[in-house]
Amino acid sequence: MFGKKKGQAAMEYLMTYGWAILAVVIVGGVLYYYGVFEPDLPDQGCPGASVAVEAGAWDYSPEGSLRFIARNNAGQDITIDSVNVTVAETEVEQSIGEAVSIGEQTGEITIDDLPDMTAGDTVEVDMTFTYDGALEGQRSSCTLRGEV
Question: Is domain 45-147 in CATH 3.40.50.300, yes or no?
Answer without folding.
Answer: no
